[in-house]
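Quick one:
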Amino acid sequence: MIYERIIGRRTIRKYLQREAPREALVKCVDAARLSPCGSNLQGLKYLVIDEPDLLERVFATLKWAGYLPSYGHEPTEKPKAYIVILLDRAIRKDPGHDAGIAAMSISLVAHDEGLGSCILGSIDRDKLRIALNIPIGLEIVLVVSLGYPAETSIAEAMIGDNVKYWLDDNGTLHVPKRPLESIMWWNRFA
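Output:
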């Protein structure tokens, strides 16, 4: 069951304009809080955004779909919530892998709750810090956008070395993935 949920989860960048339930957002943060972290330092903090005016401010700080320059958002497709993952530098100097683990936990719980998500690292951090009044001691590591999916995204076999995702005429996002046999070995490299 977990395997099916993980392989069924795809990145979603366009959302229905239906509020993300706060109970689901709390579950997402709680799952991140309880996820593994280096030395159990628990240096991450989470800022949940769901107020309409703040959603617009956060949206303006993010870059979306780098391989699709014309892939824009209509006002009726923007995220209905964000979780900003912050590193408390008083607790830990470097996020290590903690933020990625937390982001994936958020994304999987969101998927289980019927929400789509997109983990974003291309952020205008200075602008976001000002927009959300984030204290200097907290480093903005990642942002996870959330909402009910308004698009379909599918994984497909990668042809050659082309990792670029693309949209078909029906608006379905196709995401090439490397074949399992090209990235896995047993015991030693052949």
